[in-house]
Amino acid sequence: MQLMRYQANTHRINHIFISHLHGDHYLGLMGLIFTMHLQRRTNDLHIYSHRGLDEIITTQFKYSRSWPNYKIVFHRLEKDKREIIFEDDAVTVETIPLKHKIRCSGFLFKEKPKPRRIDKDKIPAGFLLQNMAALKRGEDILDESGNLLYKNTDYTIPARRSRSYAYCSDTAYLERMIEQIKGVDCLYHEATFILEDESKALETQHSTAQQAASIARQANVGKLLLGHFSARYKELTEVLNEATPIFTNTALALEGETFTIAE
Ligand SMILES: [Zn+2]
Question: What pLDDT score does 188 carry?
Fold first, then answer.
């Protein structure tokens, strides 16, 4: 429903990453699956989760006697294991083992190194397309006898930087993740509780805003987004106020907000 509300294009969603099987993290999935069906989706949909989600979803199909007209491919995550679960030309996705009441993994999204970009101002008129392609691949261009015609670095400018994003929810305070998420551009970390409810965080294996900020600081990330706030707080200023003295570049990831990671 929220995806519809914020006009996300569901046709562009081909991979869905579910951290764990507490209801607030996957109960919206059935609605999305059937919306995609009604929208006449034909592409496969890949869903990554810990064990059980395939059973939950197929049981619903079975008893409602309705199956989507596209294929769903389930990928099971390994417990407590860091693994690359998706890779294409542009990005990799790896799991971040988290500490929660049930099996739970965060996800680290990393762009791969990008090619140098063509410097359009330097390209002579009539430049061959195949030479353009070679420059994009990072090659120098030689003539038939092997003499240098165009040196790559003279006609290209440095590549855009590769960005990274880590999603860590739900989890207790967990220093073990720091090494894996070191230097990411953006970290989403749950901050279910504030300091006065620290004992509840411990009991339910969630984090406080201070703990999330401490992870962000130790991992030296670019930006911290806090989320998964307990419904007990009507006002979220306290959550932010507890985090910013520890990690300045912090924001609340409120419903409907978008954050851009600069290239
Ligand atoms: Zn949970």
Answer: 98
